[in-house]
Amino acid sequence: MEISKSNNECSSPSAGEEFKDMMKGVTKFLMMVIFLGTIILWIMMPTVTYRNKWLPYMRIKFGASTYFGATGTTLFMYMFPMMAVACLGCVYLHFNKRKSLHQIDRERKGVWSALRRPMLVKGPLGIVSVTEIMFLAMFVALLLWIFITYLRNNFATITPQSAAAHGQTLWQAKLDSAALRIGLIGNICLAFLFLPVARGSSLLPAVGLTSESSIKYHIWLGHMVMTIFTVHGLCYIICWASMHELSQMITWETEDISNLAGEIALLAGLAMWATTYPPIRRRFFEVFFYTHYLYIVFMLFFVLHVGISFSFIAFPGFYIFMVDRFLRFLQSRDNIRLLSARILPSNTIELTFSKNPRLVYSPTSIMFVNIPIVSKLQWHPFTITSSSKLEPEKLSVVIKSEGKWSTKLYQTLSSSDQIDRLAVSVEGPYGPASTDFLRHEALVMVSGGSGITPFISVIRDLIATSQNQKYKIPKITLICAFKNSSEICMLDLVLPLSGLQTELSDINIKIEVFITREKEARSDATTEKIKTLWFKPSISDQSISSILGPNSWLWLGAILSSSFLIFMIIIGIITRYYIYPIDHNTNKIYSWTSKTIIYILVISVSIMATSSAAMLWNKRKYGNVENKQVQNVDVPSSTSSPVSWGYNSLREIESSPQESLVQCTNLHFGERPNLKKLLLDVEGSSVGVLVCGPKKMRQEVAKLCSSGLAENLHFESISFSW
C-alpha cells in the first residue's frame, strides 16, 4: 500500500502544530512539577523537619489570614496544587485532541515498550504491566515511609510519665498514637480513590488512561482505604475498651474530632465494601450498584469526622469527581433521539442514536444508557461500535442479552413491532483521548462472545482513516470465538448500514471465526432474520452531543478553575466577616461541624452554578444547530432481512463491501482458537494485540505477549470493568 503524501508533507508540521506541541510540552512540564511538589510534601509530612520548620512557616504564610484562617494552610498547600494540575490537564488535552500524520510514529522496541508488557497475568491484581507494578510498589513504599516515620518520631516522645498524664499506660498511649497515624495514611489513599471513577476527568487521559481501564486502580485503592480505616477504627475501640471509655464511641465534639461521625463513615464504607465481594456483585448487581451511593454518606461524615481543614489533603480527587458527577447529571436530563434498533438472532440488539456531527470520540469508547421503560434508576455501560469518522451523525451501541436489564430490553423490542418511540437518556461517550493504532504495522484483535463490540469500532475507524487520510493502515486480524453459530451474526455489525464510500480493498483484513460448541453449520441458519425497528422521534428529543460543546476540555478547565475561585471568594468573605470575629483564628471557639457544613454547601453551590452556566451557554450556542434536523424526519417502517452470514448463502450478498468482508472470513467449527499459533504467525516489526473477552482468554493472550516468544507483540486488554 502506498502513502499518498510526500515525506516532506508528513514530516513537516505547520506553525499551528508547532504552537500546539509547545503548549503541550509546557503544560505537561508544569503538571509534572506541581504533582512532584505535592508528593514531596507528603514525603516530608511525617518528618521532624516538616513539623518544626516547614509547617510553622506555612501556617504563617497561609494559615494566619483573616480570610481563610487555619484552613488556609491545607487549602493552598494540598488542595490548590491538585486543582491546578487538573486545569493544566484540560489545556493539555485541548491541544492534544487531534494528532497530525507527522506525529504518528511506529512502535519501536525499547524501554517504554518493555515497561508496558504484562508482568503479572494471574492473581488478585489481574493483568498488571511492569509500569503498574512499579507505581504500585512506589505508592506502597510511600505509605510505609509515612507510617514508620510517624511512629518512630512520635514513639520517641511517649514516656510512662507522658502517658500517665493522659490517664493511659505506655502501650495504650502507643496504640492511640499508632491508630491516629494509620488514619493519616488512609487519607493519602483516599486522595486518589475517586480519580479513576471521574469519567470525564482530565487527569486520567492526560497520562494515557481511561476511566474504564482504571477501574482496577479504584478497586485496589478501595480495598486499601477500607482495610486501613477499619484497622484505624478497631485500634481506637481496643484502646477505649481497655480504658473503660467505650462511651467515647458516641461523642460528637463540635470543636475537635467527632468520633461518632467517623464511625458512621466507617459503617457506610463497610457496607459498600461488603457488596464488592465478587459473588455478591455478580449475583446481586443491583445491591452492589445502589449500595455504592453510600459514598455520599461516607464522604460527608468523613469530612465531619476530621474537620474541613484536614480533609483538604484528601479532598481534591473528590472535588474533581463532584464536578464530573454534576455534569453527568445535567447530560442525563435530556431525552436522546433513538433512530433504530437492529434485533439479531443471537439475543443481541444494536441501538442507533442521532449524534451531533461535532461530537468526536475514539474507538473503544463506552456510553452509559438509561431506558426508563426497563428501569428508571439503572445505568449500564456499553461499548460504542460506530466510528465518529465514518458515521458523523449516528452513534451505535450493541447490547447482549445476559443480565436481567438487558434481557427485559431484548424481550420488549423483539416481541413488538408497534413501538413508535423509546425514551432513552445517556451519559458519555467516555474513552481514550487517542488510540494511535496506526503506530503498529499489524493489529490483532482477539474477542470472545460480545467482546467483539469494541473491535467493531476499531475496524470502522480504520476504514474511515483509509478513505479520508490515505495513510498506511495496519494489517488487521480479527479472531472471534463464539459458543453457538447464531452469534456469528454479530459480524453483520462490523460494517455500518451506510457511510462506506469505497471498496474494502484499502485495508488488509482477515477474520478467523471459531464456533466452539457446534461441529458444523446449523441447517436453519439461513432462515434466521435480523429485524430492524425504526422509531419516530419526539420534538423534544436531542442528538447526543458533548455537554460542554466542541471545546469541552477548555470548558471543563474553566469550570474547575472558576468554581474553585468562586468558592475561595465566598469562603473568604464568610470567614472574614462571620467566622473570624467569633473564632479569631484559634480554631477552638467556632464549631467545626458548622464550619464544615458551610464549606461543603459553598463548594456544592459553586460547582452547580459554574457547571450549569457552562452547559446553558454551550446549549444556547450549539443546541439549535445540533437539533435542527430532528423534526420532520421521514422514518422507514420496520423491516426484516436475512442474516448475511448464513453459511449456505454467502454468495447471495448484494452489497460489495459486505461481500469483500465475507471473502476474507474463515469459519472453524468445533474448535477453540490456537492463540499461540495465530499470534506468532502474524508478521510485522510491531504487532498491536488487543483482547476483549473472558478472563481466561485475556490471561492466555497476556501470557503469550509477555513470554518473550515474540518481541513484536504489544499487549492491551479491554475489559468491561464498569
UniProtKB/TrEMBL annotation:
Q: Which CDD domains match?
A: NOX_Duox_like_FAD_NADP
The name this protein carries in UniProt is: ferric-chelate reductase (NADH)
| EC numbers for this chain | 1.16.1.7
| Top enzyme class | oxidoreductase
Main localization of the protein described in the UniProt heading: membrane
Cofactors demanded by this protein: FAD
Keyword match Lyase:
no
Its placement in the membrane is given as: Multi-pass membrane protein
Q: Which InterPro entries match?
A: FAD-bd_8, FAD-bd_FR_type, Fe3_Rdtase_TM_dom, Fe_red_NAD-bd_6, FNR_nucleotide-bd, RBOH/FRE, Riboflavin_synthase-like_b-brl
Question: What are the annotated GO cellular component locations?
Answer: plasma membrane
> What's a single GO BP term from this record?
monoatomic ion transport
Pfam families linked: FAD_binding_8, Ferric_reduct, NAD_binding_6
TM region positions: 29-48, 75-95, 125-148, 178-198, 219-243, 293-321, 553-577, 597-617
Enzymatic reactions: 2 a Fe(II)-siderophore + NAD(+) + H(+) = 2 a Fe(III)-siderophore + NADH
For this chain, the family text in UniProt reads:
Belongs to the ferric reductase (FRE) family.
